[in-house]
């Protein structure tokens, strides 16, 4: 069956060429644009969970012994995995539940309503899209998405025109969530700094302090008639500082464990938040820590939601390996750059991993 056409403006059509939710309901064979190359298709099931990915409790962070334990566990997790989960992190389960509910309500709105918030061509990739935010993408992912620029606050205020006014509490809850996750990010950046032997405020200052950016991306992965042939989200590393991800109980987030040449599925743990390191931490740590490749797989029975907060440097932040970590035996592996110059490197996709373009 041919995919259902959507009657919308040409601009909106560029980022919503076809509604993935509608395709899922039709349960027809996947349109060619969703078929991934054989080498990119899933190899590990969405619900076979890896029990080794570290789960770190942040309880006791304010006591010297608690902090020492947490810093040590974070150091090991960053070096070995580049991805870990945190519990006892201070973001309330109630707020996490409300964010999930609001996000689900948004995606359940009629397409005509969602499309009012479609990403604008040529602008910063925010707003609603289906399959991809990039209008020029040849291959699409099996997801619908909505994203917002949430910090710094002046950027958030400029972004409000793309924030839905229904469900009713959407904006209020998103602001509260953004602020709470930002507090957690500040704490984690302090812990990661300490784990590298740097002052607590080192990374936060390096990425622009209070002018660092935050983007929140909401992913809705519908059930998929042929999950083995596609992905909910293609493999990538995150170009920013760190990412905080909240997922529901279905499972689908996978990380690539390079030394085992294996994709492993992150176990959904109620109340936990998944943390993955972005490219900027790999570069700042001079590759002591890794920006992990990850992807999302889908399945034929259940829809899945993930709420993803990207902590990114300010566009003008001067990035590169921290000079304090360098020595004759550990010379800089990457050149220095202004963060705004990093994004074109990512979008050009000339190297498999973006940071390889900066290798000295
Ligand atoms: O949905 C997921 O679990 C992965 C999301 C993700 O990696 C992203 O949005 O960049």
UniProtKB/TrEMBL annotation:
- Asked if rRNA processing is a keyword of the record, the answer is no
Domain Fe2OG dioxygenase: where? 211-313
Keyword line: Iron, Metal-binding, Oxidoreductase
Going by the entry's taxonomy, the superkingdom of the source organism is recorded as Eukaryota
Q: Name one Pfam family in it.
A: 2OG-FeII_Oxy
Q: Which PROSITE patterns match?
A: FE2OG_OXY
Q: List, alphabetically, the InterPro entries matched.
A: DIOX_N, IPNS-like_FE2OG_OXY, IPNS-like_sf, Oxoglu/Fe-dep_dioxygenase_dom, Plant_2OG-oxidoreductases
**Mind listing the GO molecular function terms for this protein?**
metal ion binding; oxidoreductase activity
Q: Which family does it belong to?
A: Belongs to the iron/ascorbate-dependent oxidoreductase family.
Which protein, by its recorded name, is this? Fe2OG dioxygenase domain-containing protein
């Amino acid at each position: 069956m041919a995919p259902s056409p959507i009657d919308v403006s040409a601009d909106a059509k560029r980022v919503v060429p076809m509604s993935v939710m509608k395709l899922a309901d039709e349960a027809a064979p996947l349109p060619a644009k969703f078929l991934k190359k054989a080498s990119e298709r899933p190899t590990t099931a969405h619900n076979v969970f890896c029990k080794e990915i570290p789960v770190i409790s942040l309880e006791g962070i304010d006591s010297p012994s608690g902090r020492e334990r947490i810093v040590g566990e974070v150091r090991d997790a960053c070096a070995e995995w580049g991805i870990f989960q945190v519990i006892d992190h201070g973001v309330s389960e109630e707020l996490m539940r409300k964010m999930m509910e609001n996000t689900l309500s948004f995606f359940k709105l009629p397409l005509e309503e969602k499309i009012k918030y479609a990403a604008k061509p040529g602008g910063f990739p925010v707003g609603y899209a289906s399959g991809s935010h990039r209008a020029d993408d040849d291959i699409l992912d099996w997801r619908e998405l909505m994203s917002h620029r949430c910090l710094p606050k002046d950027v958030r205020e400029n972004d409000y025109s793309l924030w839905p006014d229904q469900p009713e509490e959407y904006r209020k809850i998103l602001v509260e969530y953004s602020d709470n996750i930002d507090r957690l990010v500040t704490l984690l950046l302090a812990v990661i700094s300490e784990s590298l032997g740097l002052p607590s405020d080192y990374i936060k200052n390096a990425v622009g302090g209070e002018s660092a950016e935050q983007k929140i991306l909401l992913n809705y992965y519908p059930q998929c008639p042929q999950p083995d042939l596609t992905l909910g989200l293609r493999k990538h590393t995150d170009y920013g500082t760190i990412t905080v991800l909240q997922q529901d109980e279905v499972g689908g987030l996978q990380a690539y464990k390079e030394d085992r040449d294996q994709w492993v599925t992150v176990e959904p743990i109620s109340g936990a938040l998944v943390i993955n390191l972005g490219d900027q931490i790999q570069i700042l740590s001079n590759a002591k820590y890794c920006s992990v490749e990850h992807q999302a797989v889908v399945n034929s029975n259940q829809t899945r939601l993930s709420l993803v907060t990207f902590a990114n440097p300010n566009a003008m932040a001067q990035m590169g390996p921290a000079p304090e970590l360098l020595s004759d035996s550990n010379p800089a592996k990457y050149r220095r750059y202004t963060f705004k110059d990093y994004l074109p490197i990512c979008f050009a996709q000339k190297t498999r991993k973006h940071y390889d373009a900066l290798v000295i």
